[in-house]
Amino acid sequence: MNLSFFIAYRYFRSKKKRNFITVLSRISMIGVAVGTMALVIVLSVFNGLEDLVRGLYASFDAELKIESKMGKSFLAETEWLESISEIEGVEVLTEVIEDNALFKYRDYQHLARLKGVSENYMQQGRFEKGFTWGNLSLGTENQPKAIMGRGVGFFLSVDLDNDLDLLQVFYPKAPRSAGSIDPSQLYNKGILKPGAFFSVEKEFDDNYILAPIGFVSKLLNYGQKRTALEVKVKEGANIQDVKARLISYLGEEFTVKDTDEQHAQILRTIKIEKLFVFLTLSFILAVASFNIFFSLSMLAIEKKKDNAILFAMGAKESLIQKIYLKQGAIIGLSGAVIGLVLGFLICWIQDRFGIVTLGISSSIVDAYPVKMIWSDFLWTSISVFAITFFASFRPAFIASKVTPTDL
């Protein structure tokens, strides 16, 4: 066994007397363990929230979304759409027309996002991770239906069981040079029957109403123009490979975004928050490591005679430094292992049994989501070891300067 490690381990395990230094070392180890455990738990919660956000958005958004780089819409001819559908890996291609519109139900009005979709929209596995009420159908050409966000339904006080009152949709016409005294000539009007509510995420619940694309195209005078195309990838196919094929086929005039790119800002915000939480907890862990500094400093004073004897026997300064550095490493390593194990167990219990709940009865998930990633454990360990090393360096340097003539 390495001599410096042997002596450091004997100091750590010494049972000759339980003095204040020994107690302080144990407190230092507990502090490292608690800090490490907190880091693992908080980072796992952020991972769980990131996955939850991805899952909720995926319930409404497409796996791949095609949009024009220039302008709000583009011409989508039938042959061109069929050629995209035949690209390897594309299972479902949904046409989309999306714009703001004014909705009126009884005496209530609300400005929301009208999204016209083709009949195969539901084949893309929509609302799998959300709540729905009513019949998820877009109706027929003669009686188009609306699938509304729960928030929009609340704002308009929509009653799905009421077959008499219908949802009115208003969209402004393109401005003309000559004015008109008839206000009805300034906008297009359509009628939808409320068919269902959905709830996946507040951003969508409060702003979106789905309708048949034929109805929306006629209301907005879009004809064969579309604002986007949504793609569902075949099971087993790699999304990034399909994305690359679409980009190659469509050229530079179009963008193809996956689910993360469609909501890059909010996912980037979560990652930044996770980074700052990691730095904050690491700083708190560094403050807690002062106990290691004080315990090693006091140990160096107590073992001053032992150090002098080692020097008299021919020990070098490097050996004394290694003893105290490894003593600090033992304290940090013991605390880190305990903290990592406890953090893992707590996250596993939360993931399996959902002990800590959100306290929101209408939430998509009942308990705080957690997801453990090995890289979090790695960076937490590196952080603990780095902090422990810097806390141990000064006491080790002081202890190595003791000479037999000092006694």
UniProtKB/TrEMBL annotation:
Location of the protein in the cell: Cell membrane
Transmembrane residue ranges: 20-46, 275-302, 323-346, 377-397
GO CC entries: plasma membrane protein complex
Membrane topology of this protein: Multi-pass membrane protein
InterPro entries in the record: ABC3_permease_C (IPR003838), Lipoprotein-release_system (IPR051447)
One BP term from GO: lipoprotein localization to outer membrane
Keyword entries, A-Z: Cell membrane, Membrane, Transmembrane, Transmembrane helix
Annotated ABC3 transporter permease C-terminal domain residues: 281-404
Family annotation (PANTHER family): LIPOPROTEIN-RELEASING SYSTEM TRANSMEMBRANE PROTEIN LOLE
Family: Belongs to the ABC-4 integral membrane protein family. LolC/E subfamily.
Name of the molecule in the record: ABC transporter permease
Organism the protein comes from: Aquiflexum gelatinilyticum
